[in-house]
Amino acid sequence: MANPLNTLRFPLHGERLIEASAGTGKTYTIAGLYLRLLLGHGPLIEEGEDAGQPSAHERPLSVTEILVVTFTEAATAELRGRIRGRIHEARLAFMRGQSTDALLAQLLEEVEDHELAARRLLAAERQMDEAAVFTIHGFCQRMLKQNAFESGALFETEFLTDDSQLRLQAVSDYWRAEFYPVDKTLASAVRALWPSPAALLREMNGWLDNSELEMRPPAGDETLAARHQAAMARIEAVKLEWLAQVDEIRRQTDGHISRYTGKNYEGWLAKIADWAQDEASGYAIPKELDRFGQTVLEANLKKGGELPTLPLFSEIDALLASRPGIRDLILQRAAVVVRSRMQASKRQAHQLSFDDLLKDLDGALGSSLGERLCDRIRTTYRVAMIDEFQDTDPQQYRIFHRLYGGHKDTALLMIGDPKQAIYGFRGADIFTYIQARRNVSAHYTLGRNWRSSGALVAAVNGLFERAKDPFIYEADIPFLPVEAQGKSKALLLEGDTAPVLHCWQLTGQPTFNRGDYQGKMARATAAEIHRLLTLAREGKALIGSEPVKAGDIAVLVRTGAEGKLVQQELARLAIASVYLSNRESVLEQVEAREILLILHACQNPSEERSLRAALATGLFDLDAKALDELASDERAWESAVQEFMEYRKVWHKRGVLAMLRALLHRRNLAASLLASPYGERRLTNFLHLGELLQQVSSELDGEYALLRWLGEAVNRQSGQDAEQILRLESERKLVQIVTIHKSKGLEYPLVFLPFICSHRSADTPLYHEADEEGNRTILDLTGAEDSLAEADKERLAEDLRLLYVALTRGVYATWLGLAPVRSGNGKSEKTDLHQTAIGYLLQKGEEGDAATLATALSALAEDLPGVAVGEPSLTRPAPLPPEEEQLGEPRVRRFGGTLERDWWISSYSGLAAQGHGHSKGVLANPGFDDEVVTEAAALAAEEPVQAPQPSIFTFPKGARPGTLLHSLFETIDFESAAGEPLAQHIATLLAQDGFDESWAQVLQQQVEAVLDTPLETGFGEPVRLRDLAPERKQVELEFFLPMGRVTAPALTALCQQHDPLSRGNKPLSFATVQGMLKGFIDLVFEWQGRWYLLDYKSNHLGMSPADYSRPALEQAMVEHRYDLQYQLYSLALHRLLALRLPGYDFDQHFGGVFYLFLRGMPQGGIFHTQPSRELVLGLDRLFSEGAAPALAQVSDNGVEA
């Protein structure tokens, strides 16, 4: 029994399964559980087997201890962003002590220490870039690398995102080794099954990844030649017997068996006789032979007829029951050999594919060092949350079950929806979810739909409740109706609330074939969208109070062919649309073949056949007449040859992308394509292919290698590389045509499902079989009927899940295209509708005809408010006219405002520079040390000063050495910087910047001295930089501060009033400015509860430590206006602390300023000051004048008001 999930009471330990139906807030729930883990929140569990136990994890966790796994990079990025946003919301709630969010408000009540909670959330927010949110493959890759010893992972491996070329190579190698040596008859038999290695790969491609697949019957020890010889002998025996017994066959069947007379009977005998005499027929067996098997003959025996007794009839039964062939043997051997060749190739090239990552980690966890590896991973990640768990396969589940199964001090939270398990084609396995559901006793559900309107939720609930087992496997995938908590608005058509579920029913004939059904429904869909948009322009089609827009409408389809049908009908009505799919590759599109022809012509412009083929492509838009005229006009033909020679030069010099862009420009292809139907799609594909080819060419050796790659790519089954997936052709808000798979996780205001009665029965006997250890995946190569029936049952179950996904995408209304669809050309009025998902629900799995469908739809409309049944309009309306813009008489508008010319981005050096204009401020270098020197002086300064021995005083002066010193302190780990590692790091930096490596020892001594020098803070114990752990410091902190019309006199007066160092300095001189102040603080660190800013200075003040005394430092600070620099940096740090630090108070938390003149340390060189509270708050007020209120409202305590 599943328990309703309460996010704040959910136990955060042990193995638990969460079923999140569509639209019920799965990601919101994950983020809520993540918050609790960060905060260590959890009251006692009140009921169930864990009653009396705390629901919290054993301790608060950091973001690096909470593993969140999902299946795609896009989902990972979205999940990370949603969690980050939720942490930010929660932190602000704890800082303010209140929240309008129900979950956060309850957390505020139940968490006692708000200040501690805010600090934990702040730390988490800062660390989110390091959070353990990964794809499952990313997680495996990370574990293998981090635990290389235990996992046996190779170092320096290359990751393959697309191994399709490797697969084809392995199959081709197998093909050559296995089939080249065989005799002609066997070779012909192989070619009859698969004309090429690519064809063989297409059949077995889906099986290669599954090493646990069990093929039946098991392969024996027989050779291919022996199998072929024995199989042909069986067929030949039947042939010879038939020819010898033909007269007896006639005697025993003619007149004794029903309908075995006349023209049909003679035709059967003739076809079988032709076959029996054909020595080259191979494994082909005519279907007519089935009529002469003993079983069929007995079933059709006439009353009073003589029972056939010829032994040949039983031999025919035996032959057809176990058809002789070599297909199963080849596939079994090929799968083993190809897998082995692929693995050997990858090992030799130090490559890993996605599947290798899973296999290698799974193997490592099951090895002799597996338990040690499990302990290490569990120690790193105390909690694992698996998002979209319904899409796991057995290997993936085994990995996490081994890691966390039976360990109650950790947590494995499996979150998903079995009703949305729709990725069987890429290895996802619903039976894995079922096994996990049986293994885990703690089940929870999310029961409220936040997406769709209440009426639409009720309609979908009612539809799925009509069938006894709506998802076939009722015991393991129950349908639990959800409550509606979604949108309150509705679709209004001409003033009335529209139905939420429109059931279109085609009538007028007993059955419809698939082509007729799809054509009519595509036309109906386009016509209805036309009607909605027309009414919207008249203010009569509204969602709430807003007119329906094209971007509100989605048409969901199964295949690209279905999508094109709809897109064509919409185009006829002048309605623009875009097509989205996550399965179609750009290499499968016609533009890929056209570009291949163009590339061939570029390589051989003088070869007439290649050039003619290129010019005949749709990209050039030349008809037959134009091509003929071009070929007959010698001058024009030479011009075309010359044009392609120029393209070849561009290709050789600048690459294939530059060449294709040159073609695009010269032939004005963008304009011509955009003017044609589907022009945006074609232009997008063209540009996409150019980028893809440019990327691929960088990995290949020359143009011919690229031609070979593209030729193979367009002729093979597409790979899985994300770079090849079709791109969206337009960002405009158009009607969206989306595959159901692509739509998962998305929502659309209005949804059309025009082809929901289409289906394709299983044609491969691939199915699952339960045993004591779970479920095994079986491939029955004999093609047995019961195996195929089981595979089709699993196909129907997945189609039902696809239908659920499709029906739960809509927010306000959904349209269904229904008809009594039948495959084949028979005269029966029975339909195949019960084999489709929608027919299974409506007809409760029973076969029926058009009347059965009509009765079911009538009952549905009667039982469920908001469901409407009717015939679709098949009339094609006139094209939709362009929207009229209300334009008055054209006239030139005069600008009567004023441009604010003093808004700019500046830095401290821009404000400090005397008498310079704005442009200098905008481009001011944040710089390191403002030693003003001429170019000649700077070059001279970089020459070493003659001295008895190298020292920090003789180290070159100027901007370049200063940059090196800053880089050095920015890139080292303060705690561990010492010895040989530090020496190597310094030597690397010296070499990179062109300095002699003899300075390495000097710089190492100086760095260690600086790190070990105590810095007196004035607040207790001094601090050494070496004492600062990474989490207590921020290097090179960039900031932007708003400036609201700051004047030089006002800033001068404020600084001189509150800072003694500024009193002795000249007044600032810059024009009034507003905009943003940009800067970089070298180091911000925390010590004993206070925050400090620190700046490194490489200024050369003299050749001895005495030259870096306090008075000398103050003089340098004044000369270079470093006083203004630390004042502005103090303001930046103050605002940052006020924003990020709960309970911030300037006097309590602001520690002060350090300027380290590196050449004078450790004896001197340390400038420390504590800017006054009045100065910093005064600067805050000055800079806030005219700025946004959120930044301007700062109280006298220095915290946000």
Look at the structure and give the CATH class of the largest domain: Alpha Beta
Could you list the spans in which at least 5 consecutive residues all have pLDDT below 50? 914-928, 930-948, 1186-1201
Measured by DSSP, the beta-strand proportion falls in 5-15%
Assembly of the depicted chains: single chain
Largest sheet: 7 strands, parallel
CATH topology type of the largest domain: Lambda Exonuclease, Chain A
Q: What would the principal axes of the Cα set say about the shape?
A: globular
Helical proportion? 40-55%
Give the name of the CATH architecture of the largest domain: Alpha-Beta Complex
Question: How many angstroms does the end-to-end distance come to?
Answer: 51 Å
Tell me the strand order in the biggest sheet: 1-10-2-9-8-3-4
Rounded radius of gyration (Å): 38 Å
- The tally of beta strands, per DSSP, is 31
Instruction: Enumerate how many helices there are, as a single number.
Output: 47
Structural category: alpha/beta
Provide tags for this entry.
1201 residues; alpha/beta; Rossmann fold; Recbcd, chain B, domain 2; seven-stranded parallel sheet; 31 strands; nuclease; DNA-binding; isomerase; helicase; ATP binding
Overview of the molecule:
With 1201 residues, the protein is α/β, with parallel strands linked by helices. The chain folds into five domains: 3-158 and 353-446, P-loop containing nucleotide triphosphate hydrolases (Rossmann fold), CATH 3.40.50.300; 176-350, Recbcd, chain B, domain 2; 483-582 and 733-870, P-loop containing nucleotide triphosphate hydrolases (Rossmann fold), CATH 3.40.50; 586-717, PCRA, domain 4; 904-1192, Lambda Exonuclease, Chain A. It is 47% helix and 13% strand. A seven-stranded parallel β-sheet has the order 1-10-2-9-8-3-4, with helices on both faces. The protein has a seven-stranded parallel β-sheet with strand order 19-20-18-21-24-15-25, sandwiched between helices. Strands 26, 27, 28, 29, 30 and 31 form a six-stranded mixed β-sheet that branches. α2 runs antiparallel to α4 and α21 (514-537) packs across α22. It starts with a strand and ends in a 9-residue tail after the last helix. Mean pLDDT is 87; it is low at 914-928, 930-948 and 1186-1201.
